[in-house]
Please model this.
Amino acid sequence: MLDVKFIRENLELVEKSAKEKGYKVNIREILDIDNKRKTELAKVEELRQKRNEIAAKMKGGKPEPELIEAGKKIKIELAEKEAKLGETEGALKALIKTVPNIIFDDVPLGGEEDSVEIKRWGENHETGVDHLDYAVSRDWVDFERGAKVAGAKFYYLKGELALLENALLQYGLSKVLEHGFTYMTVPDMVSSRVLEGCGFNPRTSEQSDEYYIEGEDLAMIATAEMPLTGYHMDEIIDEDELPLLYAGYSACFRKEAGTYGKYTRGLFRVHQFNKLEMYVFCLPEQSKEMHEKILAIEEDIWQGLGIPYHVVNIAAGDLGAPAAKKYDMEYWSPVNQKYQEITSCSNCTNFQAQACNVRVRRKDGTVEYVHTLNGTAIPLARALVVMLENYATPDGRLKVPEVLRPYLNNREEI
Model:
């Protein structure tokens, strides 16, 4: 979330960024409520001071009846003013949550179609094998029984395909460890505070993607980014400790709301999958460099797998609330003859850190909010789609990329 002082001092920038991202927010209303909050806070502080003065006078002897009466009146008035202030602060916080992060100057303006390709790697294949037909033919995936036990778009992985998923995880993990990330497994549920702190505020209720636990203040995570964001919640980190690099592995649960018209076949878009996620806490002056580092790691991973891709600088209208800038890596699908998303990485500046109260103590003793970034190393279900499309042969074999062979008993084919 943004700080109200920042909003006030950067009114035009905040309004422009919200508009470009497609969020309808009334910044003027936020400032009006903040003015109201300041007035009410001043009155509360005045009453608290009077209360303290009366309390001081009542010490050391029997207080006068008039002093007792005055104390009672102030106590009643203060309770009323504090309740009113609490309501105003709640209303202000709720409105601030609807304001998205500002965008960087080099973010393209417009909608999804206005995103800009910034690089391309590999030679695009002209033919490929449909991943779902192939996996079913080898009895490697079972959507029918998945639907029987959990509903549509749930599935079982079997045999070599499940082993291939594990190989992809081990390969991705080896890469992020090379770059200094600390491996973590994370909770598969988070509280509403963490969820909101991550900035997962959909534009409409139809786009809400999370599964909530009835009767509990918990939701199933859509990505390891969520519990990793909350890992240092309400903490102050010493400057010398930053950047902190974490690689979180988890199951991910998504309703996939708001995906009408998008590619959903087979394993490409499902309600549950596993993912290895990179996450960084860093100093504000480090975040742009760290964003490029995360992208470079993602490219290294997919170049090692021999998968053609391009990188896209995402346009403002396709950015979520937390991101100031986002790169998508899209692999070339030989089956659909187009680029399709495989990973992304976002610089969220101090947006998530403010909401989760994650700060850094500088060497000079000053304290400020850190910056946070996230990026996908390996989304395993979607990675299987990529492997099958690119390495399955019409005669029923699946070639194993060299980098995965150490995790599959050095087999060249499965």
Q: What stands out?
A: The longest strand covers residues 272-282.
